[in-house]
Structures are given as structure tokens and as C-alpha cells.
Predict the structure.
Amino acid sequence: MSNNQLSQSTEKHMANITTDIPTDIVHKEIDLIQNCISRMAQNSFMLKGCVVTLVTGVLAFGEKANHEGFLCAVLLIPLLTFWYLDAFFLRTEQLYRKLYEQVLEKRRTGDDSGLYDLNTAHLPDAIKREVKSQVRIMFSKTLWLFYEIPVLIVIGIITHPVWWNWILKCLTLCSCSPIK
């Protein structure tokens, strides 16, 4: 759900509010949650950019390295770390979306408990269970496909150096390699 869709959803729910809570306070609370959702999405996007940069750098400059296997083994650690962090940010984003829905429902009924509470740990367990676990998010179609290819290439290079020469030959043939 995009921020525009969230705003439209907010307006629809805000029309039904009949409470003593001033509307501007509820709007500010909803804006804070929307900012958290946007920040998590931005963090996830930035991690993907870092992964592309790291993998490209290793492939581009790896030809001059004497120990391709060691270079790739060192690359594997940040790759797996970024994969884990990306899943963390996506899960946190989903939790904030659930918090958003819960806050809208609570404010619509006049419940002002937890006003400005942005801690997703305070969500009821039943709502938390609706969000996939971090491991399941890591192996979701989008993250799995994005991180699978670089991880398999790196593992292939570590375990079989012939892969390295094949990858360099492919990059040279398609003129992707900056090293001639």
C-alpha cells in the first residue's frame, strides 16, 4: 500500500471518527506512522543499492585480484547481512502497517489509549502473528530472487574457481566488464 493509498484510507476512516480527540492530533499520529513506513521502505531500497554496488565492484575488480575465492568469501558476509537486514526492514514496515490499521480503528471508536505510541512491540500477539516471520520474508519471492543470484555466484566462485573465469568471459563478451 503506497503512502497515497494510506492517506486515502486515513481520510475515509477519519470521516467516521466521533471522539473527543482533536482531529489534528489523530492526523499527526497517523503521519508519524506513515513516516516510519516510508523510512523502512527507503532503508530496504538503499540496502539493495549497496548489494548491487558490492557485487558489481567485486566482479569488476576481481579480475586483478590474486585470490578470487577469498574476495568472494569476504563478500558473502555483507551479502548475507544485507539480506537479513532487508528482511528486518520489510517485516518492520509490515508491522507499522498493522499498527496504522489498529490506530485508525482505535481512534474511530474513541479509544485514546496509546496515543503517539509508535512501538510495534505493543501490538497484540494476534496482530503480530498476521505478519510473516523474518525468515519467511527472507525467502519470499522478491527477496529470495534478488539475493539468490549473487549468493549462488559467490558460493560458486568460492567452491569452483572455473566459475570465476566463466563469469569474466561472459562479462567481457557482453561488454559489461570495465576491465579490458
